[in-house]
Amino acid sequence: MKRIITSLFLLVIVYSQANAQIDAYKGKEDLRFQIGANLQKWGTGIVTSLDYGLGQSFSIGAQAGYLLGVKSFAGIDKPGFGDRFDLKARFNANLGNVIGLPSNVDLYPGLNLGLKNFGGHVGGRVFFDKGFGLFTEAQFPIAKYNSDAIGYERLNNQFSFNIGVSFDLGK
């Protein structure tokens, strides 16, 4: 996990030297790709998301995550692929422009519907160069499909924190 965060930090330093201002969401047909680290109580992994702008303030997308490092539970075998993997459909309200933030900054609350739960997320991203920036996001379940989850069934079904890099594929 330390290697992932260190690598992301180094990428930020290298690319932030240009520090050019770009729009976080200009309008229709903007496409954002994000990749980063996923941190949960019982594991850490990698998360990717793809968001498509439907307008200046709304976007839809998909997110996939896979937990690489998982803490063991007493008396329970290793988690399988299905326990470690999660896929979600997302809807975001991009508020940076609405609340008057600089054009390279975006805040976005949203909802997601995944394989493990129905939940929400709150995130933010800032772009430093044309097509490159950072994001951070907190996710939380609103309605779990299995409210009596035990052991590895809790993975990807709890509060999680994501941090990583964001790319504007339309630039």
Automatic annotation (TrEMBL):
The yes or no answer to whether the keyword Signal is present is yes
Which superkingdom? Bacteria
UniProt-listed Pfam families: DUF6646
Q: Does the keyword Signal apply?
A: yes
The secretion signal range is: 1-20
* Keywords of the record: Signal
Protein name according to UniProt: Outer membrane protein beta-barrel domain-containing protein
